[in-house]
Amino acid sequence: MAAAEREIITPVVGGSELTALQRVTRSFDRDQLLWSSGFLAGLAETRANVVPLQSARGHEWHIFYATETGNSRRVAERLAGEATAAGLSTVVQDLRDVRPKVLKNIDSAVFVVATHGVGDAPEGSEPFFEFWLSDKAPRLESLDFSVLALGDSSYADFCEVGKRFDARLRELGATAVVKRVDCDLDFEKPAEAWTKQILEQASKTVETNKSAHAAHLTSVPAKPEYGREHPFNADILTRQSITGRGSTKDVRHIELDLEGSGLVYQPGDSIGVLPSNPPQLVATLLQATGLEDDVVVDVDGESTTLQEALSNDKEITVLSRPVLDAVAESHPKLRSILESRDSFSKYLETHQLIDLIHEFPYDWQPQELVDALRRLTPRLYSIASSPDANPGEAHLTVAVVNYDAYGRQHWGSASNFLAGDAASAPIYVEPNDHFRLPTDGDTSIIMIAAGTGVAPFRAFVEHRREHANRGKNWLFFGERNFSSDFLYQLEWLRYRKEGALNNLDVAFSRDQKDKIYVQHRLLEKGADVYDWLEHGAYFYVCGDMKTMAPDVDRALHSIVREHGGMSADRATEYIDDLKRAGRYQRDVY
Amino acid sequence: MSGSAITPVEEIKARSDYLRGTIEDSLADDATGALAEDDTQLAKFHGFYQQDDRDLRAERTRQKLEPAHSFMIRVRVPGGIATPAQWLEMDRLARRYGNQTLRLTTRQAFQFHGIIKRDLKATIAAINGALLDTIAACGDVNRNVMCTPLAERSDIHTAAYEVSKAISAHLTPNTSAYHEIWLDKKRVAGSEDHEPIYGATYLPRKFKIGVVIPPSNDVDIFSQDLGFIAIEEDGKLAGFNVTAGGGMGMHHGEPDTYPRVADIIGFCKPAQAVAVAEQVVKIQRDHGDRTNRKHARLKYTIDDNGLDWFREELNRRLGFDLQAKRPFRFLTRGDEIGWSLDAHGQWHLAVFVPQGRLADVGDVKMLSALAAIAKVHKGTFRLTANQNLIISGVADEEKNGVDRLLERHGVRSSDSLSPLRKQALACVALPTCALAMAEAERYLPTITDKLESLLARHGLGNEPVSLRITGCPNGCARPYLAEIGLVGKAPGQYSLFLGGNHDGSRLNKLASENMNESEILETLDRWLGYYASKRNPGETLGDFIDRKGLTLPWTD
Ligand code: SRM
Ligand SMILES: Cc1cc2nc3c(=O)[nH]c(=O)nc-3n(C[C@H](O)[C@H](O)[C@H](O)COP(=O)(O)OP(=O)(O)OC[C@H]3O[C@@H](n4cnc5c(N)ncnc54)[C@H](O)[C@@H]3O)c2cc1C
Ligand SMILES: Cc1cc2nc3c(=O)[nH]c(=O)nc-3n(C[C@H](O)[C@H](O)[C@H](O)COP(=O)(O)O)c2cc1C
Ligand code: SF4
Fold it and tell me: From the CA of B243, how far away is ligand 1's center (Å)?
């Protein structure tokens, strides 16, 4: 960062705000910078116009969101946009960035919250929810609130966080303005409806301010042309298998052409992919249900063939609640499975639609099936390339989901789509500001990856190498077999030779009797890891959510305890501090 | 090429602290299946070579994976004699750590292929546990000392074999690095290693010694840097004719590299053999070319300084003069496949090992057959210079048992094999050999079939024609001493050498380069037709071609 730039900005914007601003603008070219300056000026104007009003009425609209993959943020920002347009003065904030107690001094708040993990709060927002669900939480009589819950009905704890938070706020005496809505993966429609309701309610209480409206309109940022709603059709330049013979996995290195899309990304971001379903699977389903491929069905008011609907519109791999409920009516056995949380989630994790259709025969009518199935939703893939090292390209590291179970072949939708023969793929960039390189290139980083979790770290190291950063890089990588599964081995070895990668520690679980995983290597190197942390290193974890991430977290705690000579509680504080400082970041799935 | 600066390998040796280098760090680095670059040179002195499956090289590069690295380990077997217990251990290691095969080499040693880095230590430790070793099996030192395993003449053989063992032991490097790295011996604090014979930088190049017992020249004595031809007088070992300056290695298109047949420089008594070996090694140590590895073998040292200089230098260092060479006669080089009875009433079975590779292939389970025999065998196993195996010292009553075990494992008797096939040799080459330019071991069966039918077509089916194929001009199967030598130049392309003789004393000559299979067969077809019609009685193919000169009458 040029010193000049600092001087200009520091007086008004400092510390984390400055870093945030610099982070966002780092990848901007001259035009983008100029455009943003206009955009910011516009915002400034809006605020100016709104402030007197609100101070007059003392009424400010708070929109909070808790997100991990950006959906909640999108909904929240959209609401904010329309609210501001309607003359409301709005403040949009990520719950991970606010002190829990703020709710005490707020009279009107809207929450858009996603559920992650297994019924858990999104990464970083845990402290907020922990506080309000704990018995330390104060009463909130004066708060009017509404909750939109985002989730995925293919998880047992569907929208758990939204549900519990909603219930808790009522307990604490807050008033629900608009009834909570639980959205499945196809959240766009319900979210829109809910947004409308909110605004109607709001407009009753607050009279709008035209001038603000006008002022605002002039400054509404031109929506980036391509996004989740309007994906860019990226040519697939390369789809190279990067697992060797005899591997138990099939991992592909995919290179996407972003030329002319105007899409920009930073290391840590993901790419959303809108797949078409595997043709073999569509055929298998039609056969299993005995339905004709060319019958005409209605999908969201548009008529199309069943073949089309199953190929491009509907989710036909992962199961969701509605389709299960439909079948459960005529199958007591399934009903009992759905009743117990555990058996339900187990069933969802291990079964696909094709299994349901075989195990619980049901006389599906074309339209009925289409209605029961949820919209085909995008899959996210961590970007494995540095935009500066590979201009106009984005690379992905995709593990192909392809397995036999119950005497049937199974396919994953997006992974097979990417690995298949499609010439191009509809994609969008999903920013992730909570998985970022340190802005200071001199800061060292420790990266822990299992399997395809190595993808963002390839981007990290490429990027820091490209920018000749002096901070040290340490990679821990784990997979099954050394000879076939060491993803990007040639590149890591080359970087290590060059000095772009300072430490490389690997764990291959199936090369010896007793399984060895990354957390074991981490513990072996505990002294050095702690020493790096003490010298300001950032700690990143990417990969498997269910087992790897928690195991690594436990390992980190015991390292801090042992080598920092700390009690369990002190170690936890130490690590919470790392999280707060953005020095312990995770991207797990 | 040759400059006055010493070669990089010399520098690596010099800074290696008697062959330690950073081998232990290399073994500990689990992010790669390879060794640090310098260590790959030092590894040879410890008896193993870094290799990779060349069939997979391109594919793995696309997969962003390093080459499929594995290691070839060579086991020294002085004189090629191993006990049943040792055999069983080699068999176990081949199955446990190797690629399920055992290679019998052209220098009477064992080779394992496909050992991965993390198994190197366990394998080498186990080999030493079986009282065999790998140190100096490769590298710029004296290699496995060969000795005719001709069991029929036991008493002479025993005496000659004792000499080969003594030479091997005397020239084994002294460094304790080997024992520290592989056998966890602690380095005695402050102790300096010392190499009284080699010195800290060892030899400029590999060095090879053979002991041969006429009338067989199975060890190809004229291809050895230093050779001892056993001279028998009234049933006793009188001593040895000493040969020096043999070698096969050359490079395509580099005339100043060439194969050379050794000269006979005199005669020494059995008790003097070890001293002769030591002094020849020291001459090579002091005068060998350390500035150019392509010019560093003893054969070049001798040609550069002259044979007289060499003889005088040797006599001077010995402190006595070698006597005049004594008469002897070589008749064959191949193994007499099948059973034979010796003077002491012991039986010996020379087993034909296709391409020197012991494996279980389909229902022919040769590796298992020999393991089964090793479990009951009371004699020894003898590896031959022709990559075959002699089950030696079988008592009359156990002979049938051996036959039955072979049968039961699908190993068919070799009686039906053509003389061509019985003595054909091929080096390893692809996929493991890093230097291979063409197939050899994997190609030998095919080309032999085709040559057999050619010979048959010309009524020469029973001629003991010698065929040797190597995947590159290094000459590991001694192709330049064959009547028909094929030397790999590119995939599917060979240089054809013709005109070697049966006792291995004459080099063949380059007939033509870069030939594919059909060109090779076409040329040989003409030669064989010519030979069949124009040969003198009893004249061998090699002698005929040599007499006629290499240009076919109808081509000029
Ligand atoms: C295994 C064996 C061939 C076989 O099929 O039996 C062999 C195999 C190799 N030889 Fe050899 N040589 C083998 C006998 C020979 C012989 C024959 C002999 O010694 O009687 C020769 C010709 C005689 C000579 O030394 O001149 C021979 C001349 C070479 C050379 C050329 C040396 C030269 O002076 O130019 C090389 C390459 C080099 O040393 O640079 C070589 C190198 C090699 C290497 C180690 C390739 C390398 O350096 O990376 C080969 C390993 C292939 C593999 O995958 O196993 N090998 N090599 C023989 C092992 C003998 C042993 O037990 O020690
Ligand atoms: C932020 C983020 C980043 C990600 N980054 C990457 C990445 O870099 N690389 C990557 O490969 N993936 C990544 N993923 C995962 C990816 O998004 C997809 O979930 C994954 O590729 C599977 O999608 P699919 O459409 O191929 O399979 P789907 O059609 O979604 O089918 C998956 C379903 O199949 C069933 N199933 C799968 N395997 C089995 C099995 N062995 N036994 C029984 N049932 C099974 C389960 O029900 C599972 O839900 C990421 C996810 C997130 C959230
Ligand atoms: C790793 C992972 C775990 C998830 N676990 C749950 C869950 O337990 N319950 C649920 O309802 N939804 C779950 N979801 C679905 C998300 O809540 C859903 O994708 C939502 O749209 C994400 O919103 P966001 O983009 O704002 O994070 C999970 C999603 C991911 C990627
Ligand atoms: S002759 Fe060449 S190809 Fe054959 S083993 Fe020796 S070095 Fe390898």
Answer: 20
Candidate from B106, B206, B207 with most ligand 1 atoms within 8 A of CB, to mutate: B106
Residues 467-526 of B with CB under 8 A from A: none
Q: For residue B215, is the peptide bond before it cis, meaning its omega torsion is within 30 degrees of 0?
A: yes
Q: Report the gap between the CA of A358 and the closest CA in chain B (Å).
A: 38
B31–A243 CB contact, under 8 Å? no
Structure tokens belonging to residue B362: 């389909």
Strand partners, A113: A66, A149
Q: What is the DSSP string of B248-282?
A: ----TT-TTS--BPPEEEEEE-GGGHHHHHHHHHH
- Give the gap in angstroms from C-alpha A397 to the nearest C-alpha of chain B: 12
Q: Which of B433, B468, B489, B506 is catalytic?
A: B433
What is the best residue among B476, B495, B497 to mutate for testing ligand 4's pocket, by most ligand atoms within 8 Å of CB?
B476
Closest ligand 4 atom to the C-alpha of B440? 4
* A240 CB within 8 Å of a chain B CB: yes
Query: pLDDT tens for residues B482-524?
Result: 999 999 999 999 999 999 999 999 999 999 988 999 999 999 9
Question: How many Å apart are CA A346 and CA A339, to the nearest integer?
Answer: 12
CB distance B64–A482 less than 8 Å?
A: no
Ligand 2 atom nearest the C-alpha of A319 is: 47
How far is the alpha carbon of B67 from chain A, nearest alpha carbon, in Å? 9
Is A487 in CB contact (< 8 Å) with chain B?
A: yes
Which residue, among B149, B325, B331, has the nearest Cα to B244 in the 3D structure?
A: B325
Contact B64 A240 (CB under 8 A): yes
Residue of B nearest to A252 (CA): B63
B208 catalytically annotated = yes
**Cα angle at B168 between B165 and B170, to 5 degrees?**
105
Find the DSSP H helices in A387-475: 413-419, 455-466
User: Confidence class of residue B4 from pLDDT cuts 50, 70 and 90?
Assistant: confident
Q: Report residue A126 as tokens.
A: 């845990």
CB contact under 8 A, A482 and B33: yes
Token reading at B295: 């010019």
**Taking phi first (over 0 means left), then psi (-120 to 50 degrees means alpha), and beta for anything else, what does residue A124 get?**
left
Chain centroid, CA A286 distance in Å: 33
Distance of alpha carbon B172 from alpha carbon B84, whole angstroms: 24
Question: According to the model, what pLDDT value does residue A18 have?
Answer: 58
- A546 — phi, psi (to 5°)? -70, -50
Concatenated DSSP letters for A27-41?
T--HHHHHHHHHHHH
Other beta carbons less than 10 A from residue A551's beta carbon: 17
Residues of chain B with C-beta less than 8 angstroms from the C-beta of A238: none
Q: What is the CB-side half-sphere exposure of residue A393 using CA atoms within 13 A?
A: 16
Average pLDDT value for residue range B9-29? 97
B346-374 pLDDT, tens digit per residue, is 999 999 999 999 999 999 999 999 999 99
pLDDT band, very low/low/confident/very high, at B235 (cuts 50, 70, 90): confident
Residue A452 Cβ inside 6 Å of ligand 2? The answer reads yes
Residue A299: its H or E element: strand A296-299
pLDDT reading at A31 higher than 70: no
Q: Is B206 part of the annotated catalytic residue set?
A: yes
Cα angle for residues B225, B227, B233 (degrees, 5° grid): 170
pLDDT band at A4 (very low <50, low <70, confident <90, very high): very low
Q: Which residues of A566-588 are buried (b: 16+ CB within 10 A; e: fewer)?
A: beeeebeebbeebbeebbbbbbb
Report the alpha-carbon distance of residue A51 to residue A502 in Å, rounded: 52
The per-residue pLDDT for range A171-206, each reduced to its tens digit, is 999 999 999 999 999 999 999 999 999 999 887 765
